[in-house]
Amino acid sequence: MRPQSPELLLEAFAEALQTMAFMFPEPLADDVPLPTAADCLSITWSGGGTGQLQLATSRGFGELLACTILAMDPGAAEAAQHSVDALQELCNITTGTLLVRLCDSPDDAPEMGLPTATILPDAAAWQSFVAQPHTIVLMAEGFPLAIRMQEAQL
Amino acid sequence: MGYCILLVDDSATTRGLIKRAIQLAGLPVTEFLEAGHGKEALAQLQTHVVDLILTDLHMPEMNGIELARAVLANPATAPITIAVISAEPNGQRLLELRRAGVKGYLRKPCTPEALRDLVVPLMENRHAPSIT
Hints:
The structure holds 2 protein chains of 2 kinds.
Chain A: H1 6-21, E1 26-27, E2 38-46, E3 51-57, H2 59-69, H3 79-102, E4 111-112, E5 116-120, H4 123-130, E6 136-140, E7 143-151
Antiparallel strand pairs in A: 1-6, 2-3, 2-4, 2-5, 3-7, 6-7
Helix pairs in contact in A: 1-3, 2-3
Chain B: E1 3-8, H1 12-24, E2 29-35, H2 38-45, E3 52-55, H3 64-73, E4 81-86, H4 91-100, E5 104-107, H5 112-124
Parallel strand pairs in B: 1-2, 1-3, 3-4, 4-5
């Protein structure tokens, strides 16, 4: 398995987001408000390499993602209940796409676990998350997103 | 006459996405059933006649490989066509699926067009022998 690469992580994330919802990640603009609370999704893998991918973003982005995928009106009442689920699937698909890119042969790809969700309860928790090494901060549809991959330190 | 499709994925959002893509493709589907994992899917099969199962691999309780094996080992459900839609990156596990009798595979993320291209031939060739 190749060492982690920000470029491959970005490629995998962009492919997942574009294909799932026709959304496009961009560099974070200075005027984008940072989350006062955020959802944090994690997925681990093991065998042929061990690691973890984490994705954090505001609940508003999760709701917009769910609305887009399910063709619901923005702000639909059902959006809130699908928000974390949609983000977990984005995390899952990004991880699978990334692992394909990181492995020299598909037969060497590690086994993925199931995504889990936690909450970053305030702005300080968000700042702490994005301050960790290898964290890439982006935005999509005006919402901030942070994503990182960590290898063999679980 | 239309088909009954059982969608098995622990993501309700993904089930909704797949259902919408198949509806947009204009396939003659009369009923969609849904299950969040393999055990729920097996329960659905006890009370419904299903033509096609589209299943994820990574799910709690019972994963997609275990579901496929259980369905294909039961003479009552063995004729059901099974295809997998998953983010699974490992080629060996995909080979394992093919050998178990799964007839199609689509890697996530997938477009509505790719879903249609997976489902249409499976429906048109429902009783064809499993790929090897």
